[in-house]
Amino acid sequence: MRADVEDALAVDRDKQDPARPTANDRVWREVVSWFWVIVAFLVIEGALVQARVIPSGSMENTVLVGDHLIVSRIGYDAGIPFTQWHVPLWRDPKRQQIIVFRAPLANQGFPDFIKRCIGVPGDHIKIVEGTVFVNGTALVEPYTKHMFDFKDSPAENYPARGAELSFIDRPEWAAELQQHTVNGELVVPPGYYFMMGDNRDNSNDSRFWGFVPRANIIGTPLIIYMSIDASDEVWGPGYALDRFETYASVFVHPGRVRWKRLFRTL
Fold this sequence. Notes:
Helices cover 26% and strands 25% of the residues.
């Protein structure tokens, strides 16, 4: 009886207040609000910024394994998240700028790499005992790391001894390397870039698989917003559970966070 009276009063209130939202109105408003949340995510992720985590040591000591970066796509690339559709924009990489890009490795599904742009279209590049020369001038590279004395290695005398390298990831680069070598220098063709890691002794870069097309450029990192000291396997694809455990462990072992690296700009 009491429930019937309350229902009747509720009906009367609705009749007296036509502006009161109905159940259908509330559902529709919820749908619309989530729609705009999704649109905002697509715009931000697809054209403005992305969050990335570093899974390898090829850019040490500039960027470490476990560094979490905010990458700017503004002016470089725009696309639809979780799809292959994207379009290059008006900004081009500059020499010695850190760049995130899709590596031209079709057999690996074009994985995203982070390296430093060493050569832009038209540049003449050669490496002599670890020193990089661009258009006849030695680059000043205080950011490089050399773990060993590899000055006599083919990778540090390039392209002069490039034929001695093992081009496992992209065998066709062996022939292309010869085609683009003029007077002992590698000439970067129009619309392409030459990328190298700062950790020169431990970097799978353009020396081993070739130029990066402009269409593969994603953006440039802006800031390190988090940095956690953990093994590189944790940050690779297919280790979601290990990654979750790593994040959870920070609350118990806060020393795993590299606090001094937080909010460092790149």
